[in-house]
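Tip: read the tokens left to right.
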């Protein structure tokens, strides 16, 4: 069986190019014309590879690397071997990402499976849909009446774009994704299997049964948002569900109706956000955390993985635990509980030794 390379090289960047991206100066003895076409981890990198390092756990790997050049912060620069060009920058990982985008542009967003532009055979586009030039539609995709799609956008295989949906320019809608009742900005990436704009979970509950409440709002996704595979975002009940610009949402996230997420938030896998919750800008929610409905998480707040949010969180706060509380309080409680358990075990062991002596040393 062959061993395919899904992101073959071809492009290259020079040390001068990398320095320009990072806004730094090269070491005096570095040849700015030297080029790199591949990247690699510190452990396996060779003289033709570019690597990066910004985590103290990899200090030994940095000291032993054979990489031709390494992006590194000033803190670890003295551990770069003599044969490796040290590219000292405050943000090594961010610059590394920029270099990767230059070397492997096809990895930046999903690519068309069939044709770079145009409607592929097997796709179904309603006559009333409007597609700008440069749109690519893969086989099996369905685009409904009145939908509008901007130039440079890809609609993946078997994706469904509902009636009246608007999608901006240079977007990528992954295979099998379903969008309805949704307005999408520019440069948005929706990964395969995501479902956006379906009914919110709204019922008038009573002892006589649960009456469905029609969900008549929309989902609004602003520019530069990325939405992970199999994530679901419900449309609003009577107002819109909104995802702010630059927000990044991981795989398998559930966002309920009427939720408003601010700009540049990070929502990690398995998060569940209940209806009518509001997040400010630059909020981070760790994996498997979740909120009840109608709470507010202030701008800049960070929520630890597994946290259960039952009340508002102030701006800039760091909370954890279930129910959620300030991280220092939670960690203090965890440490106290650990000490209590350890003390109880120690007491039991001591009691066991005493009982053993009373019984002539027989095990307890």
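Filled-in amino acids:
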């Amino acid at each position: 069986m062959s061993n395919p390379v899904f992101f073959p090289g071809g492009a290259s960047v020079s040390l001068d190019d990398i320095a320009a991206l990072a806004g730094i100066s090269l070491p005096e003895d570095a040849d700015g014309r030297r080029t790199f076409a591949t990247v690699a981890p510190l452990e396996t990198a060779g003289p033709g590879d570019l690597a990066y390092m910004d985590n103290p756990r990899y200090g030994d790997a940095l000291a032993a690397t054979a990489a031709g050049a390494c992006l590194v912060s000033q803190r670890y620069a003295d551990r770069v071997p003599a044969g490796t060009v040290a590219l000292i920058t405050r943000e090594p990982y961010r610059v590394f990402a920029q270099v990767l985008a230059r070397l492997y542009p096809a990895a930046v967003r999903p690519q068309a499976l069939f044709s770079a532009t145009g409607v592929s055979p097997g796709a179904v586009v309603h006559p009333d849909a409007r597609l700008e030039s440069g749109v690519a539609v893969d086989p099996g995709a369905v685009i409904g009446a009145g939908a509008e799609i901007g130039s440079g956008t890809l609609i993946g295989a078997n994706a469904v774009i509902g009636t009246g949906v608007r999608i901006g320019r240079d977007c990528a809608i992954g295979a099998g994704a379903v969008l309805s009742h949704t307005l999408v900005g520019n440069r948005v990436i929706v990964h395969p299997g995501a479902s956006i704009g379906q009914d919110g979970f709204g019922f008038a509950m009573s002892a006589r049964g649960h009456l469905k409440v029609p969900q008549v709002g929309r989902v609004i996704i602003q520019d530069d948002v990325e939405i992970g595979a199999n994530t679901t975002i419900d449309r609003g009940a009577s107002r819109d569900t909104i995802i702010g610009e630059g927000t990044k949402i991981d795989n398998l996230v559930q966002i309920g109706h009427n939720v408003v997420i601010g700009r540049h938030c990070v929502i990690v896998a398995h998060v569940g956000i209940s209806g009518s919750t509001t997040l400010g800008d630059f909020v981070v929610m760790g994996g498997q955390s979740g909120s009840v409905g109608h709470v507010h998480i202030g701008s800049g707040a960070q929520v630890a993985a597994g946290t259960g949010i039952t009340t508002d969180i102030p701006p800039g706060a760091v909370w954890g635990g279930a129910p959620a509380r300030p991280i220092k309080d939670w960690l203090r409680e965890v440490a106290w509980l650990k000490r209590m358990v350890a003390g109880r075990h120690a007491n039991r062991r001591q009691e066991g030794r005493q009982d053993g002596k009373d019984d002539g040393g027989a095990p307890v």
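The domain at 118-325 is CATH 2.160.10.10 (UDP N-Acetylglucosamine Acyltransferase; domain 1). The longest strand covers residues 49-53.
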